[in-house]
Amino acid sequence: MPSLQKTSAPRERSQTVIPTHRDEVAAAGSELIGGPYGRRALPGTGRLSPVRVVALVAIGMFALGMVQKLPCYNWAWFRGATSQYTHACYSDIPHLFSGRGFADGLVPYFDRLPGDIPFLEYPVLTGLFMEVAAWLTPGGGDMTEREQTYWLVNAGLLMVCAAVLAVCVARTHRRRPWDGLLVALAPAVALTATVNWDLLAVALTAAAVLMWARSRPMASGILLGLATAAKLYPVLLLLPLLLLCCRAGKWRQYGAAVLGFAGAWLVVNLPVMLLAPEGWKQFYVFSRQRNVDFGSIWLLVSQRTGDQIPPDRANLYALLLMGMAAIALAYLTFTAPRRPRFAQLAFLVVAAFVLVNKVYSPQYVLWLVPLAVLARPRWRDFLIWQACEVMYFLGVWMYLAFTMGGNKQGLPVDGYQFAVVLHLLGTLYLCAVVVRDILAPEKDPVRQDGSDDPSGGVLDGAEDAFVAGGAAHPARHAAPASEEAQRVRWGAPREQDSRG
């Protein structure tokens, strides 16, 4: 047994991709914590394995995000609307505790609410999450104390989601666990994690991607169905799976994923759908009737032209553009020289939805973070995009401070429009480099070590069943055929990883 332990560490070391050996930005940034990964380091041994480090860093960054909300927690949520914007610490959570009847013991979807919105306007699983947090919030005391406690309870539950998210990303690409640090250290995650409840759906989606990477399509579909029961966007991942399974001829696996998706979604939704149909459909009615709102390209057009785009027209425009994006994604999938990786197409389809949607709340960046890390694990590109998102995060609150404050302190309309454009350009930039990686696979950082599709599960290394255009001549399958790829496939150490 001792001899086995001696040989396992070098083997794992040879197979683990070390970012500080391959990424100049990661190497430069590592100087803050002692420099690049050294030759004596043994990843995966001892108590601080890469996954554990990623989880601890994610929890630490989440805690820093909670500290950033302290001005609001102490007073700004309760003493004036403008202060929570100038301190950039706004959160929906304390306001909806009383505003959606949780403080009064009302049952979501069943009990009618006073005001313009008759029922809770969130999907069922998110509503259950909110209700469980309300059950864990002690009664008694004044409303301010109860709202503070409700936010703390939700923050504790969302911290678990953040840790699950980071761990799932770290484990998806087996040879690249350190890419999870991009999620754990993402400033936009720390800033937006407790603005709303999106982390629940994001963590479930990351778990679904992990299960697909482990060739467990039924489990992946179940988790994706649960994620869609918490937020609508995860259903979009069925499109890239359909396209990739079509190219690889993996119809049975795709069918298992769809079956699991439908079953899980119905288990969560069907009881409420049957017993409280009016409350259940409130989310969909609200989404359809919602006006063009913050962060969207449609708000930018409306403000620049002075022509208010009505909800129905914005819905139509968004639907048409998503249809065009789906066609472009299909063309890219079937004509690319090698089959695109699942994470690449997943990121592109969700990014397209974000870009054309009629609202972009600051926390929506959470939808893209794990997919962006898996699609393009390069620190420079990721940090450029994150800088744009942080600027938008600050811009939207300063704009609200300007429009809602009587002293007009904050960011005027032109400044806010610049922040929106920055967000749009940052997302488009990341989409562009992902598309470039698909068209030129040799530039894909994940495939440079000889991998095919680490997040692809049954797709990883599979032969193509259907291709079109240039992809059909002459290559007919996606498995890497290089000598380097064969060494990786059979577990032989890579020469450039011998440093540790």
UniProtKB/TrEMBL annotation:
One GO cellular component term noted in the UniProt record for this chain: plasma membrane
MF-aspect GO terms: hexosyltransferase activity
Keywords: Cell membrane, Membrane, Transferase, Transmembrane, Transmembrane helix
Coarse class of the protein's main subcellular location: membrane
Membrane topology: Multi-pass membrane protein
InterPro entries reported in the protein's UniProt record: GT87, UCP010361
Compositional bias of kind Basic and acidic residues: 484-500
Ranges annotated as biased composition (Low complexity): 471-483
Keyword Cell membrane: yes
TM helices/strands, residue ranges: 49-67, 119-137, 149-170, 182-213, 219-244, 256-276, 314-333, 345-362, 382-403, 415-435
Family per record: Belongs to the glycosyltransferase 87 family.
Name of the molecule in the record: DUF2029 domain-containing protein
Organism: Streptomyces cinereoruber
Native organism taxonomy: Bacteria, Bacillati, Actinomycetota, Actinomycetes, Kitasatosporales
